[in-house]
User: Fold these one by one.
Assistant:
Number 1:
Amino acid sequence: MTVPLLELDDVVVEYPAKGRGGKPFRVLHGISLTIAPGETLGLVGESGSGKTTLGRAVLGLAPVTGGEIRYGGRAVSRLGKRERRALSEDIQVVFQDPFTSLNPAMTVLDILTEPLLVTGVARRDAEQRVRTLLDRVYLPHDAAHRLPREFSGGQRQRIAIARALCRDPRLIVCDEPVSALDLTTQARVLDLFTEIQEATGVAYLFITHDLSVVRHISHRVAVLYRGDIVETGAAAQVTEAPEHAYTRRLLLAAPVPDPDRQARRRAERQKEAAS
Amino acid sequence: MTAVDVEPTPRRDRLPRRTLRDPLAAGCLAVLALVIAASLAAPLLTDYVPDHSVMADTLAPASDAHPLGADGVGRDVLSRLLYGGRTSLLGGTLAVLVAFAVGGPLGVISGFYRGWFDAVAGWIVNVIMAVPAIIVMLVVMAAVSQDLNVAMVVLGVIMAPMVFRLIRASVIAVREELYVDAARVSGLGDGRVMRRHVLPVVVAPSVIQATQVFAVAIGIQAGLAFLGLGKASQASWGAMLGDAFTNIYNAPVLLLWPGVAMGLTILASSLLGNAVRDALGPTGPRPVRKRRKRVVRQSAPAADVPADRLLTVEGLRVSYPKPDGEKSVVEGVSLTVARGEVLGLVGESGSGKSQTAFSVLGLLPDDAEVTADRLAFDGQDLLGMDTAALNRMRGHGIGYVPQEPMSNLDPCFRIGFQLVEPMRTHLGLSRAEARSRALGLLERVGIPDPERVFRSYPHQISGGMAQRVLIAGAVSCDPRLLIADEPTTALDVTVQAEVLDLMRSLQQEHAMGMVLVTHDFGVVADICDRVAVMRGGRIVETAPMRQIFAAPGHPYTRTLLASTLDGGPVRGEPSARPGAGEPLKGMTS
């Protein structure tokens, strides 16, 4: 295997305790992961498992108190502000909530040109780039002069994806990017993610609670449970024949849209829970 | 994939223009502009020097020489009024500038960086707030300077904490927004994040605060001058009031002019602040609020209803008044639920599924207009019912399980109380009976330590527990129909499975009818007997559950089913990797 794009080595994230002398709150207890260039690593977990914190640690938004995050072989978990900013060219994000992740007072054009203008791209080039980006996420060009509130959830998520793509990143951290969307919108946005990956070779750290989403989009899957990775493997293996008991519980708990299979799954789950 | 349609919407207005469209705001600005213009143009409007006193003119009435008369020591009232305006406006402006120069930057830095700076700044601000303002100013005027402007600078410092707190709170609120995180990830430095994302949010509340500080400062300055503080050469409205007060029996009209000037200026300033705040709120005229209308258009005879029918909805329409006509959200929905039957109401957001469920419960907002050809529950007409009868029906006849368990429990009351109260009202149980029944129910819904949960407040239990509590509450009065609005959407998948198990077993135990609103076909397959698929306020298809999956009739149902990801192919190895061999950009910079 080639050098991984991103490598997490025994990463610990702790938040300081409230008040003096309290024990710090440890969210992640030593996470180790790798993501290869052009690969999607699905990260599954329930609420409180630390999956969002893991994404924020990769983005430099959460304090890494132990272990190391390496990007392209270089340690990046304790960079200074300036160096961290330089890394923003390579690592980008799409957040879960398309309603609060776009500044309501800025037009789509402002939102999309902002990351380009800070790096000294000329305004005209930046606006040209915005048109390419809007094409890429299938939004019309006149969307540029509108405010985020004029768009539906799915459209806003396309804007957020376009913003992430602005500077041609090598890795996008996707934090539950389709959880707030309707079923049909969700499927279309996932297809867009796949299409962009195949065209640009960007890698995704795809965080979600939904096993069927993770199966649809990921090459490999890691399962996070209470701050620990309990299982990592190929998507097919983890989502069809999980080894760890927790993953199996997760799989059996997800209802399938098929009455007979769901009845079997329910019976199996209840049997497992009873034993 | 085709381009996504985006509905065009009307152009938006900027805040200043929106404020000006309010006639009250325009009036306030006109008054302030007049006061400012008159004060600045004082030398052109009067030939008198404000502190030049002519003993012969003492208390002279209005005349050509003195348009507003002269005061108790023979000074021209008009000139004092005009020059006094200068003192007031300058004083108010000084106080505002100083308050914002001190409080503003501190507030922004404290809110943005928090940490030790915030702690120290907060401590200093508290100390300033603890000092009595008027005494400080009296001391300063007595010991340092007789100049009213100096007092106003001191007042500005004393009012800086208000500005500090306001701005700090606004900055903290914005800082938590995801778009600020996104901006950081985009590579924006702190300065840019502050300028582009944080400061614009702070401007509007600052304008409002400034108008209030301005008004207060003018009042306090007048108070000081009224007490006789300030240089004798400094004409001011407060000093005029002081003079008028000593001559109140001889020439009461002297009170009028400074009083009117001060009143108008302070009022205009305060109202302007209010108008800016209003302009920040929802745009457009608010629709006139109507009383809820629940109308049955024609009550068809109930003879043709099968005996096991529990709920009948025919031709249900729900609409809301909007500035530009009505917005219809449910357009003629008809459905039925038999005793012991589970009906799934499936659709995407905005399809009207929750609105349909809520109109059965009579829980729509007051301005909703609900009409139906028939809305009957167990032989009783729900639309014609008065509130008291409806309240008896809810809980006793129809139970409700909401989507967000936490926001549906009152954080101020213990869980036990919230379970016991409805049972005492609806079932007429004694406190002890209701308590033991509640404990039994908590045990029944799978809560391991009922006694502890009974005594807990909602914030002390998890979301899954809270949903169990609400289910216990919903079935506590033996309802015949349970309406569940996305009951498991907010829960983790492992908890969802357990809650669905619980709902299924309770439903079978009590032979309850159930309307389950959901967007998840997995949940439908798990628990429903029949399914109604909604889109755009209408039901496009109703069919037995197995038929929906085996042979969906409507194209929209097929689209929805095709969008579910379960059972789809898994992604293979990462294939095309253009750029995978390139050097990493972040490494070269």
Note: The CA atoms of residues 241 and 256 of chain B lie 9 Å apart.
Number 2:
Amino acid sequence: MPTAVEFREISKRFGKVLANDAVSFSIAQGSIHGIIGENGAGKSTLMSILYGYYQADSGTMLIHGIAQSIPNSHAAIQLGIGMVHQHFMLVEDMTVLDNIMLGMEGGFRLRSQRIRIAAELAKLCADYGLEIKVDARINTLSVGEQQRVEILKQLYRNADILILDEPTAVLTPQEAEALFAILRLFKQQGKTVILITHKLAEILAITDEVTVMRAGGVVAALATATTNQEDLAHKMVGRSVATELPRQTLAATQVVLQVEALSLQNAQGVHLLKELNFSVRAGEIVAIAGVSGNGQSELLEMLAGMRQSKGDKISGKVQIQDYVLNYDKKDPCLAAKLRKLGVAHVPEDRLRDGVIKDFPVWENILLGQQSKQTYLDKQKCVEASDALLQQFEVRPLDSHLRLSQLSGGNQQKIVLAREIAARPKLMLVGQPTRGVDIGTIQRIHTELLALRDAGVAILLVSAELEEIRALADRILVMSGACITGELPIADYDTTRIGLLMGGLHK
Amino acid sequence: MNSELPRWATSIALPLLNLLSALIVAAGVIYLLGESPIEALSILVQSALGNAEGFGYTLFYATTFIFTGLSVSIAMQAGLFNIGSDGQMYLGGLGLTLVMLQFDASLPAWLLIPLALMGAALFGAAWAFIPGYLQAKRGSHVVVTTIMFNFIAASLMNFIIITYLIPTGEQNPASRVFAENGWLPRLNAWLPALGDTPLNLSFVLALLCLFAYGVVVWRTRWGYALRAAGKSAHAARYAGISIASVIIITMLLSGALAGVAAMNSLAGSMHYLSLNFTSGAGFIGIAVALMGRQHPLGIFLSALLFGILIQGGADLSLEKSNIPPETFIFIQGLIILFCGAMENMYAPALARILNLKWRKNV
């Protein structure tokens, strides 16, 4: 079978990170090819290189057997490559037809073009069994329908190599099934589909071949028929040894955080959290493992009192010590109230939520703690800030610097220092070491373990299994807005966690 | 790029460079009008600063601009661009006048003047509350609503003055003159050297407000919440700061400061309410806030600069018939252009020069 795409020794470096490390594999024409890997494995970078968003530092790409350089997405489209992004690129207020026409109107007068293009679209829809009303406005469509519009757009642009980035992440199971039916039809028509996903079941259900990526490289390229979920999970997560940090034996006793049947639906009716039940005790680190975007961020926002989105439907109960959180009335000050109850929060997106870049360091130390005193004595604040910087070895040790002048690792240390200094009873930690250098990671882990030993209840969300292994006493795995499994650290098993992360129960 | 510059460069060197650019363009225009820019400058400076009386007038004008500048600045700290200070000041004038007309025959000065001050603040705040509420609860952009509220204020005041406030038998669209116990004490009562200038107690109040503004914004938890909400809505949400209440309270304060600006000219100088008495002071407040970088000292200095331009500009156009009085509005526009719209124009160049120097030192 001829190849549609062949990667030869593709490498791409971002600063210190080698995102793609001599990646080589090929994708047969007329096949559905799956690419799986954890976050940061290099899947998205590779597809961005194929679609012309990035240029490879070295290596060549062959499209239909001919070496091509793809300097931008326009060149990719010319070569028949189409991409359906995880986040749709649609103009919400325009109709389906206008969205598809956008950029290829083909003439000065729109009316005649509209009629011509509408006819062509009707034919494409019939050929591929896509049910789309071309004069409907995008914002009246469901997510699944919007995705079909994206696919139709690529078809209209004559894409014969279609890249789908996590296409089922936002779909209901039924919509996902409908999508697969469409993809199978594509295959029959001789088109090539590249499917990026972390859901193992999907890979097995629909792909012909699968490439497993880890840490920027290809670890396996297999025919789907020759593999199974356990094997894929094992290859995807890989085995490596965690550096063991010393810790005391678990002396957890009193329940600090109790979550019962917590569900969250957004305004579109999508379940972001579904029937969560768990508790965190004092002196215990409970880690939530899972691929990003399976509800972990929403859970943290809920527990920290930050979620303010309109149209949310919330049910269930969250209790922190004796206090039952009330989500009925959207209270913008809930986060401040929770802090008074002893909840500290190191947010996942620290640059967006956890700091104010234009403020000096000492004012960032006050963020969230601002209501403790009415008059802010600058001298005292700076002294307190200096002491914290010293304790956490922040460099440079200067509380007057603007926060944006510090490195990412030092910014994270400041957030952590501030939250630890508040002497919390419950600590919510999201991705504490994302984008942080190795030395600092060790430091942050040590601090969190010290906090645990001091009797703080810690809920940790991390996409890094190594981190979870190093810190957790108990592991919850989230997938598709649900908790799919729970295991104590003694039963740590990468393969099993990998399977649970892929949405496979038991 | 700008954040790479040291603080003295962003807060002193850049505004001065911008101001200089505006003045150079203004000088070019004066030259094209057939006058010597240097002579014009010396007349301007002589008139505004060179004698006690002129200086008194300069400070008198600056007083109003300090208030409107503060009004715009405090809103900017919370990330709100309040263009409506002019309308809020206009309404503040109404609040003050209503108190004066009602009580100037019955109340002593020490009671009447604080009451009038409260009337001015209250009316200004009320006028700013509506756009603030709409922004906080309905997401209507405060820039758009405050512009509209300026027009509404102008029409409303037209109606009120002409229908209710003109004394019977008068043609002039203005209220009656307040009784003398409603007149703010002038500073020349204590400093005779100031000569016959309308500089009054409002100036002292303006300085107090500058100080209070600095303390509240930078040294209280409420000011912290205000600046945090202005810089990052996400961080405010994280910290449990209610953005809606920050917006509403800030607009109330901003409106109150604009309302109090009416004290200076109405109770300190004119002693009656007339149509369009603000003569654009609210808009100059925008320029003052931009140029002064919302810093108390900066607000004071730029308010002073605009005081100089008004006082000196008036004399300049008297002496030089080629230079029309509108030249001042033109210079004001240039300053807003250079200090507001293009405030970072010189930042890259300055950063490069400083970098070079730094490398040489190493």
Note: The two ends of chain B are 21 Å apart (CA to CA).
